[in-house]
Amino acid sequence: MTSCIGKRKRYELPPTAGLPLAWDDYWRKPRQSFAASLAQWPGLPEPLMTCSGTAALVVALKTLHRRYPDKNAVIMPAYNCPLVPLATCLVPGLRAIICDTVAGGIDLDPQQLDKLCDQRTLAVIPTHLGGRVADVEAVKAIAARYGALIIEDAAQALGAFTSVGWSVGLAGDIGFFSLAAGKGLTTYEGGVLVSRDAQLRTELAATAQETLQPDLGWTLRRNLELLGYRLLYTPSGLKLAYGRNLRRKLAAGDEAAAVGDCFTLADIPLHSLDVLRLRVAANGLARLPAYLEQGRKRAAPRYCQLAALPGVSVIGDRQGADGTWPFFMVLMPSKEQRDRALRQLWRSGKGVSKLFVHALQDYGFLAPVLTGHHQPDCPQARDLADRMLTVSNTHWLDDETFVCIATALRKSL
């Protein structure tokens, strides 16, 4: 196992499957605008562009709170990106409430959700984590009893479809997607905000115009970062751009920094998305459907191989849904076995990582956001954090390297 893990040290595979950019994405005039392309595929009605997925969530929360000022609770999965509860801090009066997940899965626990909801609940946020298609209908049935609205967090799921053939993000009242690096299509940072409700779209657009103003400094920074992505998003470039910093943080014992889980409100800038990055996005989107389909084909046999490991489960989609596969969410039988596997694989440069280091209640920097309100115990979300590791589904991960990863996982059991 050691020789297998140590191979190809000059290379670094990304922990997720992001679409590589082409140089002519920057200068070539797209056939149609990014918004028009999104309306055509994956069928998003009149999408709004934002500077990040988190900014899209802020706009959504502001809009709903303006509509319903007497409602102030926002319920979200306890295993989730820490930026989601932080976003509530940018809308005065809102409070973040965490809800446990189902055992061994990403969906909200319906029993606990029903207990948490009341007439003060503004919104519930089901999350299509890792490109998997969450059970939004079950959440809608519970939320409707209390007059709460649904915001679908599809940050990691652009190009995923439900069992009825709709894009994710359209089953609830509002949906949002992220265009951050590693989320499939990227503008380095960027977001998309959607709703099937025409009146709500008008209100969202007004809030976005008010909240997201042009900012030259952020525009220059993001364009430089996007240029760096084009230059360094290769197995050789990622060694410098990602791998060295990862191993330095892990050597220092700072897993949250290694994963990129540490945030402050300064990490949520609010500004408009510039014309150049929208051009890059429009050109890249033309290649995205084929790229995602290739990822699905790669994922099918590898999912089966991982799920066949003794005691191991891999989070998938319910029947009929068609998610994206940026990576596999692999649940090892125990935390000890997960940690044993990561000691072999995390530093190996083969695209194995953690998605989030903790459940939300266990990040110290979120304590001011989550304390002061009654928060439920969320043992199943903690179990996800304790037993999950992720295996990349990047097109650079060849069969030989995948077998190496699977072998290392098997020997850790």
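Above is the first protein from milestone M3; the second protein from the same milestone is given next.
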Amino acid sequence: MKNIVVVGGGAAGMMAAIQSAGGGHKVVLIEKNEKLGKKLFITGKGRCNLTNACDVSALFHNIVSNPKFLYSAFYSFSNTDTVDFFHSLGLKTKIERGERVFPLSDKSSDVIRLLEKECMRLGVTIYRNTKVKEIKKKENRVTGVSLQDGAFFPADRVILATGGLSYPSTGSTGDGYKMAEKLGHTVTRLRPGLTGMTVKEESAAKMQGLTLKNTAVSITEEDNPKKKYYEGFGELLLTHYGVSGPLILSASSLIGDRLEKKPLRLHIDVKPALQREQLDKRLIRDFETRKNTTLKNALTHLLPKSMIPVMLDYCGLPPEEKIHQVTKEERGRLLEGMKDFSLTLTGLRGMDEAIITRGGIRVSEVEPATMESKLVKGLYFAGEILDLDALTGGFNLQIAWSTGYAAGNQK
């Protein structure tokens, strides 16, 4: 039996504690918040997108940073294992669009409650409202952790699972990075991931609150639309600052570094199901039946209400113009606007709004099969503290479960 201290009571930390205690070790779990799983509580809009039901090999295609590092972790504790694990705790699950796995109850609180219950069943000692000051070592091996109040917990192993910097209100304030750096580890550049993007034009703000479903987008060089950096299909949200929604969140992690250097162009196809020729026929048909109405009223069956004035302005068309006065050239401008409504992306929203942190403990300094530090014996890492991140769809939580399992499942 070994003494194990897990620092951080989030998804990765609780999984690591459960695996360690299940292996017969004496486990102490230290959380600085008043309750466990504070960030887990808000994931998936409070519904907790546990993982993704795709093929295991497909997991890697959704990892943005260092996918090869996760090979051993994902195959040791896969997305199927995650679902089986939660089923064994009594959680019923369901699969939704995009193979996303959710609790049947749609309540993240159920996930947290079951993890906490399992920790207690296995004898994990949980300290809440408790802050770790530093990790102690002697002759390159951890000896334990000292708390802010001066107390010391001796440990054969310390598992650092303190999360990143995103959503600091949940306790992700970068404490773990400082502890790791003090022990000689490198922290790669930290930046927001899975976050909204700001745009230059005021048109987005005029449509704030509008969700465009089943929309196709691409992101290109500002002055060269043929040079594409991202393409996607799904849901997009217009906001007071610019754009958000699942499509944009995923895009932010893929093109964020490039966007830091210069503006990019977002192209939105509002009618991706219709080819240009088909859309033109649809416009002609709609216009034929509404010859005496104005342009702004004729488009109510084709565009969301809040988008109509913005689209007409974008195409340079007078909203009060009667349909029978609309020329072929004007109809063509409207068609192009609907197939390619573009905005200038100017930057990412900050860390306080980002779902995840990009960057973290350099993975070349960590053993991929065990998550043990290559620099300090007995020091392990799990979850968002590592330089690992993925697209939306349950993949970031799968990283937490798999790395937490690897770090905790040691003899």
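Note on the second protein: The CA atoms of residues 163 and 384 lie 5 Å apart.
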